[in-house]
Amino acid sequence: MPRALCRLVLDVTPLRVERPNDCSEADALAEGTPGGHGAIPGYPYAATPCEHYRWLWGSINCAGAWAANPWIWEVGFRKVQP
Fold first, then answer.
1. pLDDT of residue 62
2. From first to last of its 82 residues, what are the pLDDT tens digits of the chain?
3. How crowded is the C-beta side of 58, counted as CA atoms within 13 Å?
4. C or N terminus of the chain, fewer CB within 10 Å?
5. Are residues 49 and 29 in contact, defined by beta-carbon separation less than 8 angstroms?
6. CA pair distance 64, 62, nearest whole angstrom
7. Neighbour tally for 36: CB within 10 Å
């Protein structure tokens, strides 16, 4: 698409490569997993953000995906004013 017709222009910010098991509390919150009571079905305690992130990772991916600890790419975007 010609840039003159674009409504949104994005710039890729620096990439990061990391493993899910290295996720900090701040990273888990940035991923949208705040934790708390009831965040994990059937979990009797208030889950921390990292526990909630670990549960979500396992529910989205296959069983054992957390233990596999694969490398993941974090790609960020920044809106550019045309």
1. 87
2. 787 888 888 888 888 899 999 999 999 999 899 999 999 999 999 999 999 999 999 999 988 999 999 999 988 888 887 6
3. 13
4. N
5. yes
6. 6
7. 12
Specify the amino acid at residue 18. E
Cα-based distances in Å from 36 to 24, 31, 32, 44, 74: 16, 15, 12, 11, 25
Tokens, residue 70: 């694969």
